[in-house]
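REQUEST FORM: STRUCTURE PREDICTION
Request ID: SP-0412
Submitted by: Lab K.M.
Chain count: 1
Length (residues): 98
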Amino acid sequence: SLSPFPSPLSLFAPRPSPFLVPARAKSKKAKSSSGNGRDSAGRRLGTKVGDGEAVTAGMILVRQRGTKWRAGWDVGRGRDHTLYAMRDGRVRFYRRKG
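STATUS: Completed
RESULT:
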C-alpha cells in the first residue's frame, strides 16, 4: 500500500463525476406563493363641479394633491389644497395669461 502506483482494483472503483455539483441546504424558510395582490382604493381627486355650474358656499370645487388648480375670487383653499366656494355663485374656470 506504500507503492507509488495505484492498485489495479482502484482503477475500476467508482469516482464522483466532476459535473455533479452538490445541492446547497436551504438557509431560509420558503415564502408564501404570492407577494402581490394588494392595492389601495382610488383617492377620488379632480374637479367636482363643472364650468358655469351654480354652487353654494362651502361646496367643494376641486380635490387635488398640490396646487394643480389655483384659487380665484371667492374661492378658499383647504389644508390638503382642496378648493371650495366661499359664497354662492357660478363657477368659472379660466387660464391665466403668462
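NOTES: The CA atoms of residues 40 and 86 lie 32 Å apart.
Reviewed by: T.R.
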